[in-house]
């Protein structure tokens, strides 16, 4: 497929029925062309199971990758050419929502009159248009990774307005892996851990581009940590904790541990605390000049932004 046309890549492990009844159903409801949809499985046995369970014509191809979330996440970007538009989607997406205030698209977000209590999630009308818009906006901002709000909670989300600056952000934030788009960059896609690997990707694209694009008015319904099959087959609280600790050691100025969640799982907080970045919460695009040197100004005219060469990051080989 042309680099300018996005492909849909779905990793799935031991849950063909979940994939059929959730993510594939959602894609069908939004009339996403099945020829765009690739499904990645762990081995030949799983390939046979999925071919028997999934309706013919509901996808393009089933591709045998490698077992393990880290391994399959590393396999997929290497399967596609560099620069390919990829829309990654988990196999258990039950619905996609857009947030509105008082049920409509408001002109601008007025903090003095805006009431979060009037936010309400509505089914996204057109996923294809949203994906195309997301890639277009990311291109304008010179950012290669975009995503959606990680939690299904309209109160904390931004409402949809006529100005995308009201509901998008480009500072260092968590681009959750259950629904995200990338302009394929194999170095930024390299995973070294099995859990929190989407945090790792968020950090690497952020360091590469000076920002990640997040649509804080769109989210998904999914059952993280609860859906049978998938990562839960091998996931443990210890492995989650160890992955989180690993990230904080690798990127001490970008993330910290959060052990206070009610779920009991160790989480990660992202924030750029480097000296020259502490005030750059509005960084929205990479600078044209790099080589690790200071640029005159960033996208918002703020002096002092550094670009990081991803080749020099302290990343261990898989």
Structure at a glance:
This protein is 25% helix and 18% strand. With 318 residues, it is an alpha/beta fold.
Word description of this protein:
This protein has 318 residues and is an alpha/beta fold. It has one domain: Spore Coat Polysaccharide Biosynthesis Protein SpsA, Chain A. The chain is 25% helix and 18% strand. It is built from eight helices and 13 strands. It has helices at 16-21, 23-29, 44-53, 69-79, 127-140, 186-189, 197-209, 237-250, and strands spanning 7-11, 37-41, 61-64, 85-89, 95-101, 119-123, 145-148, 168-169, 179-183, 213-215, 218-221, 255-258, 267-270. The strands form three sheets. An eight-stranded mixed sheet has the order 3-2-1-4-9-7-10-8, sandwiched between helices. A hairpin with an 8-residue loop joins strand 12 and strand 13 (267-270).
Topology:
Layout lengths: L6 E5 L4 H6 L1 H7 L7 E5 L2 H10 L7 E4 L4 H11 L5 E5 L5 E7 L17 E5 L3 H14 L4 E4 L19 E2 L9 E5 L2 H4 L7 H13 L3 E3 L2 E4 L15 H14 L4 E4 L8 E4 L48
Parallel strand pairs: 1-2, 1-4, 2-3, 7-10
Antiparallel strand pairs: 4-9, 5-6, 5-11, 7-9, 8-10, 12-13
Sum up the structure in keywords:
alpha/beta, 318 residues, 25% helix, disordered C terminus, 8-stranded mixed beta sheet, Spore Coat Polysaccharide Biosynthesis Protein SpsA, Chain A
Strand portion: 15-25%
CATH architecture tag: Alpha-Beta Complex
Fraction in helix: 10-25%
- Outline: globular
